[in-house]
Amino acid sequence: MQTSRSRGRARSRGVGVCCGLALCLLSALLFAQEPADPARGLKSKIVAERLAAIETLRISSAAQNEKLLLGALADRDWEVTEKAALALADRGGDASVAQLVRLCIDGPVLRMRRAGARTLAKIAPFKGTAELAKLTAGKSAAHALEALAIVAPACADGSAGGVIQRGLKSKDRSVRAAAVQCIPAMPQGLADDALAELLKGGDAELIALALDAIAASGEAHFITGLLKALHEAEVPDVLERRLIAASVASMGSLEKLGRPLQPAKQLEAFAQLGPLESGEAGARAIRLYAALARGLAVESPMAGVLSPLLVAGLSNTHPKVRKAAIVGVLRNATPGGREAVLGLAAKDTDASVRVIALCELVRALGAKDSALFAVLTESVANDPDPGVREEAAVSLGVPELSGAAVALGRALDDRNWEVVTCAAVSLGKTRDPGALAPLQALLSNADWRQRASATVGLCWLMNKDAVPALMRALGDTDPSVRRTAFVFLEQQFKAHLPEERGAWETWWKANEKRVQLVDPVAAKERRERYGYAQQAAGVFEDLDVVVLDSRGDHIQRVLDQLKIAHRTTQASKLAEAALHPGAIYVSNCTGEIEPKDVERIAWYVRAGGVLFGSCWSLTETIERVHPGILHHFETSSDVQGDVVARAVDPANPYLKDVFKQDCEPLYHLEGSHLIEVLEPERCEVLIDSPQALTRWGGGNLAAAFRSGHGLILDSANHFELQGLEVAPGVKTAEDRIAFAFDHLGMDFETWRRTQNEKWWDNALKASQKVFDFSALQFVTNFVRAKRLADN
User: Fold this and answer.
1) Alpha carbons 647 and 655: distance in angstroms, whole number
2) 485 Cβ contact list (under 8 Å, min separation 6)
3) What pLDDT score does 300 carry?
4) pLDDT of residue 540
5) How large is the C-alpha radius of gyration of the chain?
6) In the prediction, which pLDDT does 258 show?
7) Which of 52, 72, 324, 648 measures 20 to 30 Å from 689, CA to CA?
8) For the residues 659-673, what does the mean pLDDT come to?
9) What are residue 666's DSSP bridge partners?
10) Cα(363)–Cα(357) distance, rounded to whole angstroms?
11) What is the pLDDT of residues 753-765, one digit of tens each?
12) Is residue 19 scored above 70 in pLDDT?
């Protein structure tokens, strides 16, 4: 029994506990209102606390903050140093210049050096430029000029012109490469002369670096030299892209300067430089006009000049010019262009022009546009070229498109199997109940490709009445027919039955009345679950990944490291691999396959599959599966070496996380097949390398194009042979760590966790611990897009 005294003691203890809790809460509130002392935080042994202190200093305006941040530049943790440098952009001044300049020169990795330069450009560009200029001789020259390329343009006084000129004449290539990026910071006359001299010299890598810098600066005075270069008879596409980007930036600056008529006059002068007699030069001019027209207001003086130039291109005698004009006119919604392109789609004498016209019209208008629908149905039935009929068949695969099913049903009798495949898949995509009968009939065709295509179409139909036909397909003699039907049934009904017709038909008799096909909303949610997965393993989850086991490349080793499930196949055994459109097929270099394998992959892609090829697979697989789009660029010497890869459009979703800020991926090329683009309007170059262009005459490293309902991606490098094992000029642990940051995109957390590991002393061991996943990330982005698009 509890006495009154014990009850009193209990009450006292309770009051004490309550008072203690109240004091703790009060202390917490006071602490929340008054941040911890950042000076003390900078001395913490915990990196997160030092980083938090830097952020406190950045957002606070206390007088001592600059001094504290300068002290943090000497921190032993590189991330702390970098964040301190960036924070000085808000809190620094002239007193910070000396240490920031030193960081620009001595920073161990590119991202730290650039952080110092960006802050200098903001807080003290004149003093920063003067101090960096003093260091542009000797061992520090390259780093000093790299920093000047960022800092000096903020001065706009050309004060660094002399040291830049000296850098341009250096015998050290790394110094010249840094100096050409400083050309926009030179006085106008010197800058124009430097660009002209550079263009005359023909060093593609240096030219590209200068053009990228000019595009970033948008200096208007460069436009005359840029347009003159674009008018040359031969301009490699790697440089054409950069010349156009720089020209657009310079033209835009003229308008911003309040001189809106000058760009129009520049275009007139461009046309007067001489006739654009070749198809290549004419198409290049059209691409320039199209790029300049993007985003222009109708009332702009430029629009009045550009629209007639683009429309005139539609009647040019060169098919290449007409194709470029089709893209330019429709993507810019140029007045008067739609009707002209409809005419080309129906009647142009060149089949490749008709294909581009159909593709771009569908993109601009949609197949439900009545005028376009009439052209599509006529084309799929009567165009003499199978490629045009194939494109029309693909374009008609749209739900709720009245009349499409009838046109596609007739196309199932086409003499070309590619057209039949595309028509059968599109017939299913219409979701028209009238598609069921013709697809069921096609399922009895003697040709396995047509039976397989019918099966894919029945899957897309999402019609319960198609299920018995799909179960009959499980008894087909062809592995692709069986696997296509099985994957659909298993994903729909989750019955976990073997790939065997009898078992499924028995199950169907017992369950037909109660089960339903997954509705489109649920299918969309499933696609997004996989499509928006952050990690590669999540994107590949439950996906059938089929890898060609070949001699040159081994992406399966990368997949093993990430624990991504896959299976392998070999040349002459592609039929047994049972490819189906829901799978992903990776063709490792060398990609050598037998003729019957080519037929199998060609069907798989046109039915909706995705093909990834590396290196020699361009020649040995891709060109054979879908010729006429990409070609092996013939070089006079073997392509052996390491080159910096550049993103053609960094904002392209296919390149998400492939090119990280302040990281320059190196592609290791071993006898690689560089890419020549035969049909630029039908494919998208995603990665190139001016370095490769300089060395071997060709610089396209990765490109993608649509084939039927599917997609083909080619990469000149290997999926696997990348990274520290083959890193050039790397001898010490410190070299490897810097290489991992600058070229593999290693993050600070990985560095912090591993910096003291002994394996950094050995290239092979380090390569097994720190990977270059950029190639796989590239593939992952395409897989993600496929999963989001399938419906």
Assistant:
1) 8
2) 455, 458, 459, 470, 471, 473, 474, 476
3) 75
4) 84
5) 31
6) 61
7) 324
8) 91
9) 644
10) 10
11) 999 999 999 999 9
12) no
- Asked whether the predicted pLDDT for residue 447 surpasses 90, the reply is yes
Q: Which helix (H) or strand (E) holds 568?
A: strand 567-569
pLDDT score for 7:
41
- Identify the CA nearest to 774 among candidates 675, 610, 674, 664: 664
In order of 21, 345, 364, 453, 591, the CA distances from 377 in angstroms are 78, 12, 18, 20, 37
Q: Which of 584, 567, 586, 564 is nearest to 576 (CA)?
A: 567
Task: Work out the percent of the chain whose per-residue pLDDT is above 90.
Answer: 74
Question: What's at 465, amino acid-wise?
Answer: D
Contact 128, 151 (CB under 8 A): yes
Contact 615, 552 (CB under 8 A): yes
Neighbours of 598 (CB within 10 A): 16
What pLDDT does 499 receive?
96
CA–CA dist 457, 447 (Å, integer): 16
pLDDT tens digits along 184-223: 999 999 999 999 999 998 899 999 999 999 999 999 899 9
Amino acid at 64: Q
Tokens standing for 141? 């020259």
Q: What is the 3-state secondary structure (H, E, C) of 283-336?
A: HHHHHHHHHHHCCCCCCCHHHHHHHHHHHHHCCCCCHHHHHHHHHHHHHCCCCC
State the Cα–Cα distance between residues 506 and 497, nearest whole angstrom: 11
Query: For residues 478 and 445, what is the distance between their CA atoms, to the nearest angstrom?
Result: 12
**CA–CA gap between residue 742 and residue 740 (Å, rounded):** 6
* Closest alpha carbon to 87 in 103, 110, 70, 99: 70
Average pLDDT over residues 509-520: 86
pLDDT for res 276: 59
Cβ contacts of 532 within 8 Å, gap of 6 or more: 784, 788
**pLDDT class for 774, splitting at 50, 70, 90?**
confident
- CA atoms of 332 and 544, how far apart (whole Å): 40
Contact 547, 588 (CB under 8 A): yes
What residues have CB less than 8 Å from 746, skipping those under 6 apart?
737, 740, 770
Q: Identify the band that residue 560 occupies on the pLDDT scale cut at 50, 70 and 90.
A: confident
Burial class (CB in 10 A: 0-12, 13-18, 19+), 12: exposed
pLDDT digits (tens, 9 = 90+) for 313-340: 999 999 999 999 999 999 999 998 999 9
Cα atoms in the 13 Å half-sphere on the side-chain side of 43: 4
* Cα gap 584→762, rounded to integer Å: 35
**Cα–Cα separations (whole angstroms), residue 427 to 251, 373, 403, 421, 545:** 47, 15, 11, 10, 26
Residue 210 confidence (pLDDT): 98
Tokens for 758, please give them.
């002994």
Element (H, E) at 783: helix 774-789
Contact (Cβ atoms closer than 8 angstroms) between residue 394 and residue 709? yes
Cα–Cα distance, 703 to 714 (Å, whole number)? 6
Instruction: State the first-to-last Cα distance of the chain, in angstroms, to the nearest integer.
Output: 73
Q: How confident is the model at residue 719 (pLDDT cuts 50, 70, 90)?
A: confident
How many angstroms separate the Cα of 662 from the Cα of each of 28, 114, 295, 551?
Answer: 40, 8, 29, 34
